Amino acid sequence: MDIEDKGNKKQVPGRMDFIMEPEFISEDEDTITFKARMVPDPKRYELLESDGKTAYLDKFTRTLIPWDEFAKAMENMNEIPIVSTMPKQFDFCTYLKERKSEILNHWDEKYIIGESEKPAEKLLEELEGKESYIAVLYVDMEGSTRLSSQVDSETYTKIMKIFLMQMAKIIDNFRGYVLKFVGDCVIGIFLAEGNFPNTCDNSVQAAMLMCSTVEDVINPILIQKGLPEIGFHIGVDIGLVRADKFGALDIASFNDLIGYTMNW
């Protein structure tokens, strides 16, 4: 869609939700081909008459969209590939059971974290000097300072490592990247270029699974071990950011993202 930006039209991502009614499907080893009837999702849009013309009211944004705009969008979708980035584990009940077993089975271990690959650093190198649309997810532990005064340092470190590790694994499960750890906070990013709606869905579903992981997995285990429960805060945003290298020559430098979306 177009927006006015100081007198100039600028392209920005927009979202229209359709439901698909498949009419024909064929499949071979590499490709699934199907013909589908695209219908504006009735959960989101209400069919109205406006000035004698058909229009749809977006129930979420309260925006009236002429049918011509829908028709235009559907023409642009003709014969384009449907992009979907599925999570690695999409059975969330199974995912939560696996995480609970993992934490319990390794509870008595030291949680030593060695050096590992950092996919986010490779991504930032590829994006350096460019502007890109990303979804950013922030999750941090609530009351970590209070917790540090309630338990010994070894237990505090263990709880912190479990929380950060499980939040990072969820970001990875939804095909995101862990940008950095900042104290008791994990920042995850999801590249939205060319896959805007699916990226939004993945980032929100990641946030929802984080809630379930803390409430249904981590806290019950802490209670079982006679330890205080933890709280958390989560925020998700999407927008245009710029990747670049920051720091001081011969002292320290790193790749990072800047932009309004990153300023939480």
Secondary-structure map:
Blueprint: E1 2-5, E2 8-11, E3 18-27, E4 32-40, E5 45-50, E6 53-58, E7 63-66, H1 67-76, H2 92-105, H3 119-127, E8 131-142, H4 144-150, H5 153-173, E9 177-182, E10 185-191, H6 196-224, E11 231-248, E12 252-258
Antiparallel strand pairs: 1-2, 3-4, 5-6, 6-7, 8-10, 8-11, 9-10, 11-12
Give the gist of this structure:
Helices cover 34% and strands 35% of the residues.
Key terms for this structure?
about 260 residues, alpha+beta, Alpha-Beta Plaits, three-stranded antiparallel sheet, 6 helices, about 35% helix, globular
What does this structure look like?
The protein contains 6 helices and 12 strands. The chain has 264 residues and is an alpha+beta fold. A hairpin with a 4-residue loop joins β6 and β7 (63-66). α2 (92-105) crosses α6 and α5 (153-173) packs antiparallel against α6 (196-224). The radius of gyration is 23 Å and the shape is globular.
Class computed from helices, strands and strand pairing: alpha+beta
Mean pLDDT: 85
The CATH class of the largest domain is Alpha Beta
Number of domains: 2
How would you classify the quaternary structure? single chain
The CATH homologous superfamily of the largest domain is called Nucleotide cyclase, GGDEF domain
Termini gap: 27 Å
CATH topology of the largest domain: Alpha-Beta Plaits
